[in-house]
Amino acid sequence: MAKKKAPAPKTRNWDSLWNEYSSLLKKWAQNLETLQKTSSDVQAKYNEVMLKAANESSEKTLKEFHKNWQKAMNDAALDAFKQFDKNWQNVTSESGMDQLKAYGELMDSFAKTWQKMWQK
């Protein structure tokens, strides 16, 4: 029985990179699902609150509520953008850039191989 050769270093590097990418993609999909559910929950609760407010409040109270609601939503959006900025800075840090560069080089290599395979 022939012995199997150990995978070449590039193959191991590719497997590791692909597994890491797949893992991150799964996390992204889970976070997207959570965001979609949370968005739906927020919208449903907003509708519930607005219905109750419209039925039980004066016009002055409705205006004040609407003003406070807009401020709360603006603050939440601002916090989300701040968090996105912080996360983006972490991704583009030195180690993050190394991963992006490695991915870019991998995709360049793939494109060159693809072109060579399908040349006429």
Task: Spell out the blueprint of helices and strands.
Elements: H1 9-56, H2 59-91, H3 94-117
Q: Nearest-angstrom radius of gyration? A: 25 Å
Low-confidence runs (pLDDT<50, min 5 residues)? none
Described by strand count, sense and barrel closure, the largest sheet is: none
| Secondary-structure element string | HHH
Strand content range: under 5%
Give the count of helical stretches.
3
Average pLDDT, rounded to a whole number, is 79
Please explain how this structure is put together.
The protein has 120 residues and is mainly α. It is built from three helices and no strands. The protein has helices at residues 9-56, 59-91, 94-117. The longest helix is centred in the first third of the chain and has 48 residues, at 9-56. The protein is elongated and about 75 Å long. The model has no long low-confidence stretch (mean pLDDT 79).
Based on the model shown, name its key terms.
120 residues, mainly alpha, elongated
In short:
This protein is mainly α. It has helices at 9-56, 59-91, 94-117.
